[in-house]
Amino acid sequence: MPLQVSDYSWQQTKTAVFLSLPLKGVCVRDADVFCTENYLKVNFPPFLFEAFLYAPIDDASSKAKIGNDTVVFTLYKKEAAMWETLSLTGVNKEMLQKIREKSILQAQERAKEAIEAKAAAKREDQKYTLDAMMKIEEEERKKIEDMKESERIKATKELEAWKECQRKAEEQKRIQREEKLHQKETQMEEERKNLKHKSLPRNSSRYLATEGIMITLIFSGKVSPFGETSFSFQWLHKQAEARRAMNTDIPELCDLKEEEKNPEWLKDKGNKLFATENYLAAINAYNLAIRLNNKIPLLYLNRAACHLKLKNLHKAIEDSSKALELLTPPVTDNANARMKAHVRRGTAFCQLELYVEGLQDYEAALKIDPSNKIIQNDAEKIRTVIQGTELKS
């Protein structure tokens, strides 16, 4: 049974009531104050103070100050008048209980309304923030897409012009080769005609060597002396056509020079294009090099860097993973390449907001190069983002 406090003091004006209530040595944080327009309660075990106020007050503007083992209330009256007493008198316990219950219900309703209003305001703020972020992201995405499209068109035109130039050069070479072959065939035809008029013994043989090919001429009474030679020229022509048809499985190679069919040359070409920020053209060079040799890890690693620049994040992850797959076993010679692959894949993960996966790659890079300050700082930033996300959740 709590002990009722009766040694309080109060004063009033027409508009306010000033109530001073001793806490009797109880810690301030243990005091529980409850106030409505008709009811005031202060609970500080084992003591209890209750007041069923003489007239309604404005509980929203009323104040309580706790300090020096005392609670001082400033209660503002709803109607300006002098009270005869602080608390109602001559009221039975049943009526007081109803006032108490009604006050508690009113307080609960106001608390519920305040919570709902706060939640509604929070939802509105979140909606506004989300709309603003989506608008900004859409503008950025549109800007990036326009830039990518412009770069793609520019790179495509440059590549088409380059391919057209190479095609014309190759076509010129092909015409020159055909003319040279035609000249040789004409020369050999003249030699055949000259030999036709020479007298040769029956059942004899002669060997004619032309460009390393041995042609046997067998003469008899029924067989044409130069039938074999004519057949061999047709075979040579077919061989030339077959050589021209080589590399047709890779159409891009048909119009390239011999040095341009070298993956290392294409890799260097892609690196130079990357240095000039022509990322789409660099990707095209790396793509062709990979078609020629798909076992060179630096091709995938460099193409991943291009995809990062163009925000092709999933492709950057794929290429970094392929580079790491090829950079096995892990040895000192490929340590730098493995570190770059982890950092680029980790960067792509973080830009996709997959911070845990990104941190794993940065930590793997730190195992390879523990003294790298830049990677250390980036890893610490990612940890901070992860911790902030967890706290927010």
TrEMBL record:
Coiled coil: none annotated. Residues 173-193 have a biased composition (Basic and acidic residues). GO terms for biological process: determination of left/right symmetry; epithelial cilium movement involved in extracellular fluid movement; establishment of localization in cell; heart development; inner dynein arm assembly; learning or memory; nervous system development; outer dynein arm assembly. Its main location: other. One of its GO terms (cellular component) is nucleus. One of its GO terms (molecular function) is nuclear estrogen receptor binding. Residues 3-87 form the CS domain. TPR repeats lie at residues 339-372. Keywords: Cell projection, Cytoplasm, Neurogenesis, Nucleus, Repeat, TPR repeat. Residues 173-198 are annotated as: Disordered. It is found in: Cell projection, Neuron projection; Dynein axonemal particle; Nucleus. This is Dynein axonemal assembly factor 4. It comes from Prolemur simus (Greater bamboo lemur).
